[in-house]
Structure formats: C-alpha cells, structure tokens
Amino acid sequence: MQQKIIPDIVIGRLPLYYRALQRMSSKGHTVTSSQELADTLGISAAQIRKDLSQFGEFGKQGTGYNVEYLADQLKKILKIDHVWDMVIVGAGDVGSALARYQGFQDRSLRVKMIFDSDPLKIGKELGNFIVKDISTLIDEIKKEGIKIAIIAVPENEAQEVTDTLIKAGIKAILNYAPIHIAVPPEIRLQCIDPALHLQRMTYYL
Amino acid sequence: MQQKIIPDIVIGRLPLYYRALQRMSSKGHTVTSSQELADTLGISAAQIRKDLSQFGEFGKQGTGYNVEYLADQLKKILKIDHVWDMVIVGAGDVGSALARYQGFQDRSLRVKMIFDSDPLKIGKELGNFIVKDISTLIDEIKKEGIKIAIIAVPENEAQEVTDTLIKAGIKAILNYAPIHIAVPPEIRLQCIDPALHLQRMTYYL
DNA sequence: TAGATTGTTAATCGATTAACAATC
DNA sequence: TAGATTGTTAATCGATTAACAATC
Q1: What pLDDT shows up at residue B4?
Q2: pLDDT grade, residue A3 (50/70/90)?
Q3: How far in angstroms lies nucleotide D2's C1' from the CA of residue A165?
Q4: Cα-flanking dihedrals φ and ψ of residue B123, to 5°?
Q5: Distance from residue B51 (CA) to nucleotide C6 (C1'), in Å?
Q6: Chain B partners of A10 at a C-beta cutoff of 8 Å?
Q7: Among A97, A111, B58, B63, which residue carries the largest CB count within 10 Å?
Q8: Is the pLDDT of residue B2 over 60?
Q9: Cβ–Cβ below 8 Å for A195 and B20
Q10: SS3 readout for B4-66
Q11: What's the CATH fold of domain A8-77?
C-alpha cells in the first residue's frame, strides 16, 4: 500500500496551525473555522482546508472545527503526541539560552543534555543541567536513544559536530551555526540564522 | 519608470548567496561558479543564475563569478553596504544572547540598544549595553532613527510591543515570541520559533 | 582553438486560489 | 428550514528546471 506523499511545505504549516489551536484552547475557545484560523495566521482559508484535507476530514460543514479535536489530530500527525528528548551541543550564549528556554514545554519537546568541548564549561551548572564533555556525546546519545539535536557551536566546528551527531544516531538537527552544513538525505535539517532573516528585510527598507 | 518586482522568495535566497560568498572570500577563493555555489548551498545552479539575473549580469561565460565583485553587488542589492542599527526588546535569556551575539558583526548589523520593562533588569549591564526602560523606547528609537527591531519578550506582550515599535518608526521586525503578531502591510516581519522548526521535523521521524 | 560557464527562454512542475456541491 | 462552512475540484498562478546559444 503506497502511502500518499505530503508536500513538505504542507508539513511546515501544520505546527503553525497547531500553535494557533493551542492558543485558542488556552483562551477557552472550543470551536474555530478555517476562516478564523486564516485571519489569525495570515494564510488563506482555502489553503488551510486543503492542507488539513490531506490527512482526513476533521471539520463539520456549517460548524467548523472542534479546537481540541483538531489539535489532537495534528499532534498525532506531527508525532508530537509524546515528548521528544533533545540534546544541545555548545554551551555558549545561544546554547545556554536554549537550555533555559521555557518555550519547549507544552510543545512536546524537552532538552535532556547539553555538551561542550571547553574544559572551563564542562561540569558547570546550566539551568537544570550539568554541561557534559563532548567526547562522551556518542555514548550518551546512544544510551538514551535521542533522535533530535540542536547545534549551537561556532561555525568552524558545526560540520564536525554534525558528523558526530549522525554517528550517534541523531535523525533531526536544528542548526544555529551560521553556515550551511551537509547531511545525508535521510537526516532532517533546519537552520536558524537571525542575520539571514534580517538581511532579507533590509532589501525593502 | 516601473521598477521590476522581484519575488520575495528570490530576495530570501540572496542573503544565503552572500553568506556563502563571504565564506569563500575568507578562505581566499577569488572566483566561483553557479555550480560551486549550488553544491555548497544545496540549491540548483540554474536557480542561482536565474535569481542573480534578475538584478544584472555579474558573471563571465566560461569563467564564472568574481567572489568579491558578486559579494559587493549583493551587498548593494540587499542594502547591507552600510551598517544597520537595531534595538532588542526584552532582556531575558533570548534577548541577552542576542545582545552578546557575535554573528551580527561582519554582516552589516549592529545591536544599538536593549530594552526591558522589568525594574530589576533596567539599568543592569548586559554585554556592552545598559538595559533601558521600555517606557523610553519610542523616544530613543526616534532619536536614533532606528528602523530594525528584535522582539524577545513573552508572547503575551509581543503584540503590544510590536504596536509601540511601529509607532516609534520601526519598519522591520524579527520576532522571537512564539506567536503570530499582526503588522500593517508596509512593515516587514520575520519570525523565529525553534519549536516550530523542530515540530516540522518530528513528522518524519 | 576547445572547454567551460553564463544569461535566458521555453517547458515543466508544483502550489495556491476560487468556486461550489454537499451537508451540518 | 436557512445560513454557514467544509472538503474537493478545476483553474490559475508562480516557481523551478532543462537546455542551449552566446561568449569568455
């Protein structure tokens, strides 16, 4: 049985929908519509309905969507109906901010360990963690079976760290180093580089 | 004279090209080709040539592109041939990490001031800055004529801060609060939400 | 010159939107 | 029932790719 391939651009919008639904839920809203979601997200209602319809029928004509139900379905689709443990590599400013970040709670994500190569940082307390020696990275990740990593090391170390993470069994990487890193096709990769976002806007100023 | 409208998706790739060229330049490479750029960026060579051709002819047949020259042209196109001052709003972990971030140097971006509303934070040192009172935000931004802001406040304050920034004359916003904020169409907006990127990858795990 | 690579066109591919029957 | 809103189809729109003449 051939599974339908969903465009990645659709997958990329689902977390956006989920975030909006979580917010509606926390405000006590019980039902919504593609139009209301469209208004709060700046996406067209038709697109939202089309995206959702790739996965099933979650709404009722005339009524719209039940917020809790749709959020629950999206959780299952995105596989965030359970918590994912993550490791952070790099305990500099960015890694430290991420280790203490409150925004992963309630979103099925949890930092489990943080690593650095700097002897001055190893063993130090950081948020609820003790910074671990990067030389133990492969063993620790394998032991816990962790699949997601966040890279927050200087750009000249990013590729080497990436290769090590993949050896350890990491399947998804969020890269904060401002450099393009190469990964095999089966590894998921997302990048965050604030300067890139900012330079995209200066064009219009 | 009607100026050609360049698709935003093309503008979004230019900083990527610029980043790669800066890196080549720092490694001492003097010439490159659309194919080499394609290989280092994971974008097709045809697309890179097409994107660049929207703005002029920067290469030579048979030879490729002069790294310095192309980087220079991109700087002008993106308007990053001069440094842009920015303000950060929110001196929590994220704002602090951004205030100390070294990655803005050499990329024509500079943090100029950081604001918070918490009396415990106002007046404190943070990197090279003294955290300013958010109530002075409009005056300070207007005085300096700053156009770019980074929002790093809790999600329940993000929209209010946004509205204030726009009143102060801010034209481009990078939002770290995990919420969709509304802005008028003439204001540029980019958002960074690590959980969104991570939830986009769990689908595939 | 021969080989390489650009800039550009036309073809392809994919994503978005508009519209509406179905139905709650 | 009447009004509202879904799920889906077909049409439109836009982006990517392949290919090649031009030319360094």
Answers
A1: 75
A2: low
A3: 60
A4: 90, -15
A5: 13
A6: none
A7: A97
A8: no
A9: no
A10: CCCCHHHHHHHHHHHHHHHHHHHCCCCEECHHHHHHHHCCCHHHHHHHHHCCCCCEECCCEEE
A11: Arc Repressor Mutant, subunit A (1.10.10)
DSSP A22-76: HHHHHTT--EE-HHHHHHHHTS-HHHHHHHHHTT---EETTTEEEHHHHHHHHHH
> Between residues 9 and 68 of chain B, which touch chain A (CB distance below 8 Å)?
11-12, 14-16, 18-20, 23, 40-42
Q: Does the pLDDT at position B7 exceed 60?
A: yes
Query: In this structure, is the CB of residue A45 within 7 Å of any atom belonging to strand D?
Result: yes
Specify the pTM. 0.96
Q: What is the CATH number of domain B84-198?
A: 3.40.50.720
CA distance A78 to chain B (A): 4
Query: pLDDT digits over B109-155, tens only?
Result: 999 999 999 999 999 999 899 999 999 999 999 999 999 999 999 99
pLDDT for res A2: 46
* Distance between CA atoms of residues A159 and B179, nearest Å: 31
Residue B199 is encoded by which pair of tokens?
């939830």
CB contact under 8 A, B180 and A41: yes
Run of H or E including A155: helix A155-167
**What are the extents of the domains in chain B?**
8-77, 84-198
The fraction of chain A above a pLDDT of 90, given in percent, is 97
Between the alpha carbon of residue B197 and those of residues A16, A153, A174, B202, the distances in Å are 10, 18, 7, 9
Read off the pLDDT of residues B162-175 as tens digits, 9 standing for 90 and up.
Answer: 999 999 999 999 99
| pLDDT value for A4 | 75
Measured in whole angstroms, the distance separating CA B137 from the mean position of its chain's CA atoms is 21
Partner-chain contact A198 B40, CB within 8 Å: no
